[in-house]
Amino acid sequence: MSAFSSARGFFRRVGAMLIKEFLQLRRDRVSLATMITIPLMQLLLFGYAINTQPRNLPTAILVQESSDVGRTIIRALENTRYFKITHVVHDETQFDRLLQSGAVLFGVEIPANFERALRRGDRPALLVAADASDPVASGSALAALGPLVQIALQNDRAIPDAIPPPFEIRTHARYNPGAVSQLNIVPGLLGTILTLTMLIYTALSVTRETERGTMEALLAMPINPVEIMLGKIIPYVAIGFLQATMIVAAGQLLFKVPIFGDLTLLAVLTTLFIATNLSIGYTFSTLAQNQLQAVQMAMMFFLPNILLSGFAFPFAGMPLWAQWVGEVLPLTHYLRIVRAIMLKGSDLADLRYDTLALVVLMLLAMTVAVTRFRRTLD
Predict the structure, then answer these.
(1) Residues 6+ apart with CB under 8 A from 148
(2) CA 261 – CA 16 distance, rounded (Å)
(3) Which class for 372: exposed (0-12), middle (13-18), buried (19 or more C-beta within 10 A)?
(4) What is residue 229's three-state secondary structure?
């Protein structure tokens, strides 16, 4: 009887705790909604967006001659899902600039007298330049290029059938000719680590003050919301810059990742990226009611940055709507910036679009954060 009463009391106490916990979850509607809706949203978003076989990769054509064979090659590229012709140029300098700026991932050069040499059986070369800073995106497309063009030219009856084929494809993998994965991963990790740490640090800043009861003392001081925000963000800018310095140094010493571009430009744009993430994290801290919600919001924002920015999967391989989502994520633009500076030696003119995008995202986040914080004070 005593054992039965003890067991009965045990289950009654556990049941009371269960009811209490469910009541707390029901009152904390933000956390409850996050736990239920976020996994479903992420499944739908990433299930449709992620594609390990890149398609519609932006490609430039350098046309040195206007011929039927050249037009056949262009049509063959356009008819495949691997390549999307976005630029047709006639100047080699512009051709190189498009690759260096990241506007295209591939460049196909049809040299002068290509058709005449082809019909004479001289086995001319079709020149292909690939941006190999993302070896996953370039590898499969390069593998498909040879058979694609060869089959297209076989339809032209004036081209003699021959084994080996009547032309050769010379590929030049620029910026990472050895397809070394560290040259792609390490610069990406710089942006990923900064995103995670900066978001979480600042997402907890305001909610921590509220939960500790120090917000009232802060509000009693003669200080406005912008000054509070800057005072909280600037120390983390310094910490983020120290983190970035350590990662870049380790990348060079341990993984032999080069820096072909201007180190000062990399430092300035890294600071801009850090400030953008801190502003977003501060916005989350003004929206959250407690530290748990702040961390949940930060992680909810961090996961799309990983999967839709081009870090884990090729950006150009995602559907168009997913690329639009990726364009509003700071990590997308910073990955282009850091890889372009370190591996390509790009300058600010090449990176003006992504730099402007980071500035706009930072200003929007700061505006929302200050507005929300001012409402909190009221």
Answers:
(1) 76, 77, 80, 82
(2) 63
(3) middle
(4) helix
Closest CA to 344 of 124, 123, 180, 101: 101
How many residues belong to the chain?
A: 378
3-state secondary structure of 1: coil
Helix (H, G, I), strand (E, B) or coil at 67: coil
- Distance between CA atoms of 198 and 305, rounded to whole angstroms? 13
In angstroms, the CA 83 to CA 79 distance is: 8
* Domain locations in the chain as residue ranges: 57-174, 181-377
Tokens of 145: 């290029």
Residues with Cβ within 8 Å of 372's Cβ and at least 6 positions away in sequence, in order, are 283, 286, 287
At the fourth CATH level, which superfamily is domain 57-174? abc type-2 transporter like domain (3.40.1710.10)
* CB 309 within 8 Å of CB 357: no
315-346 pLDDT, tens digit each: 877 888 888 989 999 999 999 999 999 999 89
Nearest to 178 by CA among 211, 130, 220, 128: 130
Sole residue written with tokens 């009547």: 166
Question: What CA–CA distance (Å, rounded) separates 50 from 317?
Answer: 8
Residues paired with residue 352 on neighbouring β-strands, in sequence order = none
108 DSSP β-pair partners: 61, 128
- Evaluate whether 335 touches 313 at the Cβ level (below 8 Å): no
Strand spans (E) along the chain: 57-63, 83-89, 106-110, 125-131, 168-174
Q: Are 85 and 56 in contact (CB under 8 A)?
A: no
Q: Which residues sit opposite 88 in a β-bridge?
A: 61
Q: How far apart are CA 18 and CA 16, in angstroms?
A: 5
Q: Please list, residue by residue across 147-156, b when 16 or more beta carbons sit within 10 angstroms of its beta carbon and e when fewer do.
A: ebbbebbeee
The strand pairing partners of 84, in sequence order, are 58
- What is the per-residue pLDDT across 73-126, written as a single tens digit (0 to 9) for each? 788 777 777 788 888 888 888 888 888 888 888 888 888 888 788 777 777 888
